[in-house]
Amino acid sequence: MSVSKVNSGFIQLNNVSQSFTSQGQQITLFSQLDIAIHQRRSYAITGPSGSGKSSLLTLMSGLAQPSTGSCQYHGVKGVQPLSEIRDKVGFIFQQFHLLPELTALHNVALPLKLRGQRDATKKATEWLEKVGLGNRLTHKPAQLSGGEQQRVAIARALVFEPEFIFADEPTGNLDSASAKEVSEILFSCCQERGAALVMVTHSESLAAQAQQVLAFNEGKLAWASRENSRAMTATQTESSAGSEAVQYA
Question: pTM for the complete prediction?
Answer without folding.
Answer: 0.84
